[in-house]
Amino acid sequence: MDSAIPGLRWPGKLASMSDIPAVKQTANTTWHERAAELRPDGRAFVAGQRVASLAGATFEKRSPIDGRLLAPIADGQSADIDVAVADARAAFVGGVWSARAPSARKRVLQRFAELIRTHKDELALLE
């Protein structure tokens, strides 16, 4: 599902739930089979988009259950944090969210809640 979150804008970008992988579910599919199909995106989420760490470094995220590789994860360092904080500050100061009317923020949060409900199984597996 590629559902944009109406009204939720980062500087120049539209946030969406398209990064959540779709997992096929049938009556005979087990949770373990569905979890095995997931391919999490380990890049950082900064300014409304997925990005690698500035140095390109990653670390391996392994399953605590069986030790299998789940995904390479962006290994953010202080420079990456500085960029993310600066982007968040610019979005706040720019009023993209902070200056929005409460009713508009409510609509965005309600849409976000709807998307969480729609993708609850995938989110549970990613957790």
Task: Characterise this structure.
With 127 residues, this protein is of the alpha+beta class. It has four helices and six strands, in the order ββαββββααα. Strands 1-2 form a two-stranded antiparallel ribbon. It has a two-stranded antiparallel sheet with strand order 3-4. The protein starts with a strand and ends with a helix. Mean pLDDT is 81; it is low at 1-17.
Tell me the layout of helices and strands:
Elements: E1 4-10, E2 13-16, H1 31-37, E3 44-46, E4 49-51, E5 58-62, E6 69-74, H2 78-93, H3 102-118, H4 120-126
Which of globular, elongated, flat, extended, rod-shaped describes the shape? flat
Rounded radius of gyration (Å): 17 Å
Distance between the termini: 19 Å
What fraction of the residues are assigned to beta strands by DSSP? 15-25%
Question: Number of DSSP strands?
Answer: 6
Q: H/E element string? A: EEHEEEEHHH
Give the low-pLDDT segments. 1-17
